[in-house]
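The instructor's notes for this session suggest beginning with a concrete chain rather than abstract definitions. Hand out the sequence below and ask the class to guess, before any prediction is shown, which regions might be ordered.
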Amino acid sequence: SLPLRPGIIRYRTSLPEGTRRQAFTTYASLLPGTLPLGGDGEGGIAVHCLDRDQPVVDQLAAEEEKLRAVFSRGAAT
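After discussion, reveal the predicted structure:
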């Protein structure tokens, strides 16, 4: 058996609800072992992960920053 600890974590994002947050959840669904489930009703995103012991929140934060940079470049053009 694999030593996994599946579960749901909450990721608090500063992206506003709408297209940018939807783009982030779509992008985050490509990360191995994670599946965004949607808004948690408190300004965050519920994310199912295969192993809660992994740095899932840190990884999501790093990916959000990358996507935020893409949004910034798009706004400047």
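Then share the key points. Helices lie at 19-28, 56-76. The CA atoms of residues 20 and 33 lie 22 Å apart.
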